[in-house]
Amino acid sequence: MSKVLVIGAGGVGSVAVHKMAMNADIFTDIHLASRTVSKCEAIAASVKERTGVTVATYAIDADDVAATSDLIRAIGPELVVNLALPYQDLAIMDACLATGTHYMDTANYEPKDVAKFEYHWQWAYQERFKQAGLMALLGSGFDPGVTSVFAMWLKKHKLKTIRTLDILDCNGGDHGQAFATNFNPEINIREVTAPARHWENGEFVETPAMGVKQTFDFEGVGPKNMYMMYHEELESLAKFIPEMERARFWMTFGDAYIQHLTVLQNVGMTRIDPVIYNGVEIVPLQFLKAVLPEPASLGPTTKGKTNIGDIATGEAPDGSGEKTFYIKNICDHEDAYAETGNQAVSYTTGVPAMIGAAMIVTGAWKGTGVFNMEQFDPDPYMAMLNEHGLPWTVEELDGPLPF
Ligand code: NDP
To answer: I want to staple 173 with a disulfide (CB 3.0 to 4.6 A). Which of 75, 104, 224, 304 is the partner?
Structure first.
C-alpha cells in the first residue's frame, strides 16, 4: 500500500504516472500536481482510459515551499516524485523535510541564472534528511539514472574494477520538424551549449562545447555523429567508482540540429541572462522555448529508436586481465507512444522514475539521507527495467573504444 505525489505534468510526468497506474499493486494511490492543472487532468484522463485507474489532480507552484508543504500535508503521501524542472528541486526537498516525506527526482538542481549541472546543492541536504529519518534519491531517469545503475551492475557482475567508462546516448528519432528538442528545450539547450567536461586521472578536464566528435554505429539506428559533453552522472560516478581513470559522456546530434543551434547561439538566443526588450526583462532562452514546439507535441510524429548504454573496461574478477562490456537499452519511439502517448525520450526517463519510486516504496532500496543511484544494489532495479518496458542487453567487446 503506498500513496505517492508526482509533481510535474510534462512528458516525463505523464509516462511515470501511466506506468505507476499499470503497477497498481505497488502504487495504490496516485496524486499528480503541476503548475497547469489542465495538463494533470489530461494525463489523468488518459490513465483512466488506458488502465481504469483514477489519478487525483492539483494545481501547484512548486517554487512556493509553504504551498507545496500544505499540499503534501493535505494528501499525506509517503513519497514525492519531483518531475517538474531542475529549478524546483531544492524547494520540493524543503517541502519534503517540512512534512516528513521521502523525495525523488530525475535531474539535479539548477539555479535559473547559471548552468552548472552539479550535485553540491542537493548533497548539502544530507544531514537534514538523515536526521529526519528520510530518504532522498537523486537522478532516477535514464541519464542520469539507468546509466549509473548499468555501471554498478557491470561492476557487481562482470568487472572487479572499472578503469574507463563511456556513456553513449543516441536518439535516432526523427520528428519531422526543422528544429525541436525532445525534452524541455531550456534544459536541453543549456546542457548542449555548456563546455564539455570529462573525468580523467582524478579531475574534470574542460573542452569547448561540441569540440570533440566521433562516429559510432548504433544498433537499431546506424552510424551517427556523437559529441563529448558534460553530463551530471559523471560527477556521482567519479565519486562512487573512485578507481576510474577516465569517464566520458557522448550524445548524438544531427548536422541540422547543430546548424540551427550554432545560429541561435551566435545571435544570442541561447543566453540565460535577462535582456531588456520594450522595457521588459526577458531571458532569450525562455523566449526561444516559447516559440519552439512543445516536446510533448512531437510524440505522434516521431519515428525511430533511442539507444543508450555504457561501455566499461576494467579488470575481470577471475584475474584473466582486462575486459570490455557494452550494456544498453534500445527503445522504439512509436512503441513508446502507443503505450503511454509519449515519445521515447520521455518514456526512457519516466519508466526509470517509476522504478526509482518503486525501489523506495517497496523498501528494496532503503536508507536515510541523500543518495545517488550508485549507492544501491543494481539488481532489483535492473530486473524491473526488463519487466516494465526498457529491456537491456550486455555483450563483451573485443576491446575499449578506439578513440
Ligand atoms: P516538461 O517541460 O515537459 O515538463 C515539466 C513540467 O513541470 C511541466 O508540466 C511544467 O508545468 C511543470 N513545472 C514547471 N515549473 C513548475 C513549478 N514551479 N511548479 C509546478 N510545476 C512546474 O519537462 P520533461 O517532462 O521533459 O522533464 C521533466 C524533468 O525530467 C526535468 O527536470 C528534466 O530535466 C528531467 N529529465 C531527465 C532525464 C534523465 O534521463 N534523467 C531526461 C529528460 C528529462 P507547465 O506545463 O505549466 O509549464
So the answer is: 304
Q: Which atom of ligand 1 is nearest to the CA of 139?
A: 41
Q: Distance, CA 215 to ligand 1 centroid (Å)?
A: 31
This model's pTM is above 0.85: yes
pLDDT in tens, 170-198: 999 999 898 998 778 888 888 888 899 99
- Cα of 43 to ligand 1 centre, how many Å? 14
pLDDT in tens, 313-350: 999 999 999 999 999 999 999 999 999 999 999 999 99
The CB of 237 under 6 Å from ligand 1? The reply is no
Report whether 183 contacts 169 (CB < 8 A): no
| 187 close to ligand 1 (CB < 6 Angstrom) | yes
185 in contact with ligand 1, CB cutoff 6 A: no
What is the spatial order of strands in the sheet that 29-34 belongs to?
56-59, 29-34, 3-7, 79-82, 102-105, 135-138, 369-372
Centroid of ligand 1 to alpha carbon of 158 (angstroms)? 35
Q: What is the pLDDT of residues 183-239, one digit of tens each?
A: 788 888 888 888 999 999 999 999 999 999 999 999 999 999 999 999 999 999 999
Question: Measuring from atom 44 of ligand 1, which residue has the nearest CA?
Answer: 183
Structural domains in the chain, sorted by start: 3-138 (3.40.50.720), 146-340+392-397 (3.30.360.10)
Would you list the DSSP string of 264-329?
A: HHHTTTT--S-EEETTEEE-HHHHHHHHSPPGGGGGGG-BSEEEEEEEEEEE-TTSS-EEEEEEEE
